[in-house]
Amino acid sequence: MTSLPYSRRAAGIASAAAPIFRFATQSPLMGQRSKPGVADFLFGDPHEMPVPGYAEALAKWSAPQSKDWFAYKMSEPSAQTIVANTLRETRGLPFEPEDIYLTNGAFAALAVSLSAVVDPADEVIFISPPWFFYEALIVSHNATPVRVKCPPPKFDLDLDAIREAITPHTRAIIVNSPNNPTGRVYPPDTWQALAKILNEASQRNGRAIYLLSDEAYSRIVYDGRSYHSPAAHYANTFLLYTYGKTLLTPGQRIGFIALPPTMLHRKEMQNAILAAQLATGYAFPNALLQHALPDLEKLSIDIEHLQEKRDRLTGALTGMGYELGVPEGTFYLMPRSPLADDWAFTETLAQYDVLAMPGAIVELPGYFRLSLTALKSTKLFLKSKDSLWFKNSACPAPMLRRSSNETPPPFHPRIPVIIHSSCRTAKAPKCGTWMATGISISRPASPSAPPATATPTWCARFNNRPRNSFISRLTSITKNGCNSARN
User: Fold this and answer.
1) Is the dihedral of CA 196, 200, 206, 209 positive or negative?
2) How far, in Å, CA of 52 to CA of 41, rounded?
């Protein structure tokens, strides 16, 4: 038997997180993120300066007010009180400060919660498509991950599938609403039905099944929606939160675990969580972030602006022929890929300086994910109202639009061309011979002659060579060999 230089546990974690590891360490897309002019839709990273007041709050609270200001910290009473008061207002439950456990983000909150309730050989259900690391976290606690899929296009919780997935070994279920990556926000009726399933199964098993409610995006909801937590419906809920999404500061990690006052054996669970925090690498946020929480709690990214970008991007993509649902929360879109191989499609997009995440990374092959936090990139991506398109090479039929008002054929999306404001040049594919077709193309009489018609708006380049054509509106590009183009 060949021994490994690392533990089987580490090997299991690496295997469970293989898709995101592969993407982060091997994908050529990651190397393009620092390239000037790139449209980076990969992750929920900030693309502009922090929200007003954030840096000021850290500067204000960095001035020590006592000799213990930067001493060892667990959960500071002042921070616990701030969180409890906020949850009373937003969740409608009488949370107590002693039931709030400050953590270094929701990642740590999940790890600590699992450590507090899961034993080896226990099963933990998680919902797919999931956040990258749910399965890896479950495996890291020597538990068995059990996947339950939410079918597209609505991505509702499949309550019947959850019921069937529960066994005598089930100890917990992780649910994320608003959901990353789908943007789905689960309504109270869903929570009530899930609570009924979990209560019945807990009674049947003779022990509690805990619901780990990942509420990282609970303050990022659209269209006037109110967020509803399962904690109001199911007593044995761990409410998990991070400020990194609302403040768009993922590198400054502070979050919490909140136990609802209805939780059974709450006092015993308090001790278990504290022990788990200590054993999970001292999973407390730093002193400065806890001191600053009274001010940080009041801040947020511009949700209205995010909704405007959501509407703009979903409208544009739908107009191109892409299939996608309108997210109800979070800052992600999940369009269906025009190619079955979503890795290949995102690598193709990267040739045009558009970086998107393959859906396979979040267990949704055939889709791709876009982050709305890409402020400047979004403007670049949709810069031209006179849109330029590339033909989907996987579709045998030509894709012609005679006018901007013509409805495209069903699910024949076009790969968008990025119009760079610096050179006003459309970037074309690097392979194959392509020809331009459209409703308004004018050509000069000779290479040196000026256009015979109106002043040109865009100059197209094909195979990295300029063509002697000036295009006032190019509505379609089809590959040589397709049916003849008609004006």
Assistant:
1) negative
2) 23
Who's near 274: CB < 8 A, 6+ residues apart? 74, 101
Alpha-carbon gap, residue 48 to 479, rounded angstroms: 39
Residue-level pLDDT at 52: 96
The pLDDT tens digits for 363-404 are 999 999 999 998 554 444 443 333 333 333 333 222 222 233
Cβ burial of 365 (10 Å; 0-12, 13-18, 19+) is middle
Question: Phi and psi for 145 in degrees, rounded to 5?
Answer: -75, 135
**How far apart, in Å, do the first and last CA atoms of the chain sit?**
70
Element at 189 (helix H, strand E)? helix 188-205
Burial class (CB in 10 A: 0-12, 13-18, 19+), 46: middle
Strands (E), 12-105: 39-40, 100-103
Phi and psi at 270, nearest 5°, equal: -60, -45
Dist CA 140 CA 114 (whole Å): 10
Q: What's residue 418's pLDDT?
A: 34
Token match 């999931």: residue? 130
d(CA 123, CA 146): 7
Q: Which helix (H) or strand (E) holds 346?
A: helix 342-351
Q: DSSP string of 44-104?
A: S--SSSPPTTHHHHHHHHTS-SSTTTTS--SS-HHHHHHHHHHHHHHH-S---GGGEEEES
Domain borders along the chain are 62-296, 383-487
Q: Comparing 377 with 349, which gets the higher pLDDT?
A: 349
Enter the tokens of residue 248: 């768009």
Whole-angstrom Cα distance, residue 2 to residue 363?
A: 32
| Per-residue model confidence (pLDDT) at position 404 | 38
For the record, the structure tokens of 264 come out as: 């059974």
H or E element: which one contains 12?
helix 8-16
**Torsional class of 183: left (φ above 0), alpha (ψ -120 to 50), beta (otherwise):** left
CATH class of 62-296: alpha beta
Instruction: Inform me whether the pLDDT recorded for 416 exceeds 90.
Output: no
The β-bridge partners of 257 are 101, 240
The sign one gets for the Cα dihedral 299, 286, 371, 340 is negative
Tell me if residue 128 falls in helix, strand or coil. strand
The token pair that represents 424 in the structure block: 């006003």
Kindly tell me the burial class for residue 177, based on how many C-beta atoms sit within 10 Å of its own C-beta (0-12, 13-18, 19 or more).
buried
Q: What confidence tens digit (pLDDT) does each residue in 26-65 have?
A: 888 888 888 888 888 999 988 889 999 999 999 999 999 9
pLDDT band at residue 2 under the 50/70/90 scheme = low
Judge contact between 334 and 365, C-beta under 8 A. no
* Whether 392 contacts 163, CB under 8 Å: no
